[in-house]
């Protein structure tokens, strides 16, 4: 696929157009009187009780909050005065978040600090928005095949680009969908974070995988995938190159993990054929989600990606899809057991959820 | 204080009355035709990708969900036909949850399983409900001093009782308050869990404390408390025996930690004078919470308690109070960065929150 077209927004942020074959972007100047960006919008603080970094991004309190559809900042803005995307139309665009939790370049923070006491560090990194489509009312599951594939291509481009930048340890492509989980912009979009540290959950998973490799000589995730395939009770969907299942110890009322059938670390290692297959099964899964309760399902989609190097080499690219909707009318809330103790309590058996999703 | 009065509910569950001086409970027979309890209501499953146990409690889907006030199962039920508390009145009661996530006796699961593959274990343990008051419309912050102290006494009693039971590794007293975090019963109440394993967050905190002790020879939490006192910018309230502060790396829009000024492991090690002081400052903090936005604040209150033994000996009893309310009208949702990657992003500085709470 061809390289994206780059554009610059009024406050200096980068905007990238990814186009379907035969389409050419036609951006116009962004004429909005945007305030200059804060060069240091956040800081990292180290929590000694958990050994984890926390991002303190206090300037985001005033970020755009549930604007009416006619003021949507993600719809095309042909006048250059109304939107984050100054153009008459687009297929897929990616741009830096106007209210970033992480921004700028610098050193990442690999692991705990050497100093004692209260330790903070600049919140360097990258926060991007990816608009899946110019259509305000659609969803990822509704995208035509070639369009879904274009989103995957954009994710892959951003992964390669951000992983190459100094200070970025981890690239996280994700989608939050639904007001029930706090989404403040209805327009179909996702986000891409370049974290300056290995996130706590990723670090925990890599530690498990390292221990597994030392004990068994094999890859933890590959072994889990093989075990799920051998068991079969929690398989949701399969293609030639991908497998989707509800994990044995699912935490969420609806939870599906999607693995490529061979070990890769991130999207950049997949072949074109695998990327085609990935776009198709990913979209298929999200379609099942929406049919589960005959209504758009609020969900989170998390692409777990790793570097192909020593510390992260035990990682296995996969997607974790999660929803808090435990019935057509009820939500699962993360209250004190989950939020304060990380002790998850699931209300449904993984096998029953897999059977329902498989049948849809 | 005197020992509680024990009563038995129609399905065999235990109910305990804790009374203010001069009060005597007057229970009546529980005449509800309750179905027999499931002796194995849940199972634990081990998640190899994180090294954590997950509770699968599938029978809880039908638990009581936002009943009208006149059908509240926590209000006194003098007929023995309408309530979990068959009595004309009560001060504080504790009873086993009718829809428990953990129940029964057996072996706990200390650490990861030895076996490979998919490993499950019985969900033994204990889930209790504690009603703070017979008044349906009150809150903990509204309780008279002696009544708040009685709740603390009940927590202490349950902690001692449950810690002595085989298979229970950790006793967690907590309160979820507010529909915004999924509370389905408005009546002022908390819960008490006896987990058959060390919860993941507690295990992580104890690992940090152990490393700190090995490196510095001192207690991590005591050093953090001393550092917060020396800094002062995040102190919210102090008494002779307790200190409350917003932690340096707070994760939540409103987060306050309450520590006794001397190291104890759990409520059973506090003196009567300390328990008096604890009840007073705890209630004071919850009152500040409700004054923050001039409305009842949705919150989670988590009592971090430890055994006084080798593995848990580095623990330091404290309370973590958290709210997801980031302004008078907006909630902080745990979306993909937090839920999928444990990477927390705070929208406010801990110092500004501490200053506001201190001034209230």
Automatic annotation (TrEMBL), chains A, B:
Its EC number is 2.7.7.12. Residues 29-44 have a biased composition (Basic and acidic residues). Residues 42-198 form the Galactose-1-phosphate uridyl transferase N-terminal domain. Keywords: Carbohydrate metabolism, Galactose metabolism, Metal-binding, Nucleotidyltransferase, Transferase, Zinc. Its cofactor is Zn(2+). One of its GO terms (molecular function) is UDP-glucose:hexose-1-phosphate uridylyltransferase activity. NCBIfam families: galT_1 (TIGR00209). Belongs to the galactose-1-phosphate uridylyltransferase type 1 family. Gene3D superfamilies: HIT-like (3.30.428.10). This is Galactose-1-phosphate uridylyltransferase. The keyword Metal-binding applies. PANTHER family: GALACTOSE-1-PHOSPHATE URIDYLYLTRANSFERASE. The gene is galT. InterPro entries: GalP_UDPtransf1 (IPR001937), GalP_UDPtransf1_His-AS (IPR019779), GalP_Utransf_C (IPR005850), GalP_Utransf_N (IPR005849), HIT-like_sf (IPR036265). Residues 18-44 are annotated as: Disordered. Pathway: Carbohydrate metabolism; galactose metabolism. It is an enzyme of class 2 (transferase). It comes from [Mycobacterium] crassicus. Residues 210-360 form the Galactose-1-phosphate uridyl transferase C-terminal domain. The keyword Nucleotidyltransferase applies. It catalyses: alpha-D-galactose 1-phosphate + UDP-alpha-D-glucose = alpha-D-glucose 1-phosphate + UDP-alpha-D-galactose.
């Amino acid at each position: 696929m061809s390289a994206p077209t780059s554009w610059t927004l009024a406050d200096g942020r980068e905007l990238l157009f990814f186009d379907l074959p035969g389409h050419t972007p036609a951006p116009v100047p962004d004429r909005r009187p945007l305030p200059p960006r804060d060069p240091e919008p956040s800081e990292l603080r180290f929590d000694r009780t958990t050994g984890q970094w926390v991002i303190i991004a206090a300037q985001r309190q005033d970020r755009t909050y549930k604007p009416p559809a006619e003021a949507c900042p993600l719809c095309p803005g042909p006048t250059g005065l109304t939107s984050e995307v100054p153009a008459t139309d687009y297929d897929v665009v990616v741009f830096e978040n106007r209210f970033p939790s992480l921004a700028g370049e610098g050193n990442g923070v690999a692991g705990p600090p050497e100093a004692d006491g209260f330790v903070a560090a600049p919140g360097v990194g990258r926060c991007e928005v990816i608009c899946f489509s110019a259509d305000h009312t659609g969803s990822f599951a509704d995208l035509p095949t070639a369009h879904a594939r274009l989103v995957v291509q954009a994710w892959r481009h951003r992964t390669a680009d951000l992983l190459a930048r100094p200070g970025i340890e981890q690239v996280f492509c994700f989608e939050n969908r639904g007001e029930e989980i706090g989404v403040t912009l209805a327009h179909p979009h996702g986000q891409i974070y370049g974290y300056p540290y290995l996130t706590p959950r990723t670090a925990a998973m890599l530690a498990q995988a390292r221990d597994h490799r030392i004990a068994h000589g094999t890859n933890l995730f590959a072994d889990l995938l093989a075990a799920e395939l051998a068991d079969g009770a929690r398989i949701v969907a399969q293609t030639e190159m991908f497998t989707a299942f509800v994990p044995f110890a699912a935490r969420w009322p609806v939870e599906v993990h999607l693995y490529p059938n061979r070990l890769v670390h991130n999207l950049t290692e997949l072949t074109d054929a695998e990327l085609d297959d990935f776009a198709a099964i990913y979209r298929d899964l999200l379609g099942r989600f929406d049919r589960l309760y005959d209504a758009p399902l609020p969900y989170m989609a998390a692409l777990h990606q790793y570097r192909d190097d020593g510390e992260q080499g035990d990682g296995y690219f996969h997607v974790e899809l999660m929803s808090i909707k435990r019935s057509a009318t009820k939500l699962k809330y993360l209250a004190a057991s989950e939020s304060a103790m990380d002790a998850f309590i699931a209300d449904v058996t993984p096998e029953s959820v897999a059977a329902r999703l498989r049948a849809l």
